[in-house]
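Structure ticket #2291
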Amino acid sequence: MPQTIALPAWRRLATVAFCLTTGLGDAPLRAETSVVGPSSSVATLQDAPLSAETTLGALLRHPDLQDYARRLLPWGERAYREAMPLRDMAKLLPYHSEVRPDVVLAGLNRILELQRAGMPVFHELYTVAERKEDQALNEAGLFFFPGQPGAPFALIAPGGGFSYAGSAHEGFPHAMELSRLGFNAFVVTYRTGRGGRVATADMARAVDVILDHADDLGVARDGYSVWGSSAGARMAAYIGSHGPDAFGARSTQRPAAVIMAYTAHADTGAYEPPTYAIVGARDGIAPVDSMRPRVDALRAMGAEMTFRVVPGVGHGFGDGTGTEAEGWVAEAAGFWAGHLPPHLVPGQGIPE
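Resolution: structure written out below.
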């Protein structure tokens, strides 16, 4: 792997973190409590100082996030106005709606908590030599939100019209929820401004990296799912339809399920995995009628398909907190779990 993973000690910490987060441990998780760190002392949110008033400059220079702080933000090479506070994150996400500072902050602070607990939350997708040869590869990366050891993983691609990656809105929050449910979750950042095929190649590379190091990461090789929103949903669908190897990966392993949010995508493969799709009834970028043809095509092929239209919301609603779409990530996780063998479903036979 391009970045060394210190294991197995951190994975044991991840198990403790998972148990605390889901209430499976001896101590209940309170609002002010996070994960158990290397010294076995409980850290509090006071130790994760990101707030709605934290500026972009402070985030970019945060001592605990130095190696990857820029990849927490949407625009790869953009010169940010460093005085902008995190509560204004919506201004950096022009294709998105329902961008809530509390949801954004929860994801960013979770990353900070995991980092401070000594867990390798961020991983490079490409080697130092590859990134030296092609500087654009520095935009790609992989964030890990651990769930139950031995559980399958979800690989999540945020959207942004292939111009930016909205991980803080529709990547990290999804990963947090999946981790809470016991699944392992990864959020991929990718090269932007170069179109869908290049971005999908980064997602395919992420599949290789995770599968190559599944034992170290403590994730199952079988039963993985791919998730995406808007442009990211196209990436996920491409991997589902054609396999990661069609985009430069060594692995030919197809996902067990594809989860797509609000995208007008027409391409299909000879075989389609079970697919869950969701869109807002007021979406003006990927209208409901633009999604129906592919839904109908997959059903005609015999693929298992769930299609949900959410009233009252537009494009880019993220995890849907505070809208009619709230809870859809857990619903989609249930769809995925329904296509897994029982021994791979968290809480139903996964060996500790």
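Closing remark: The domain at 9-36+55-344 is CATH 3.40.50.1820 (Rossmann fold).
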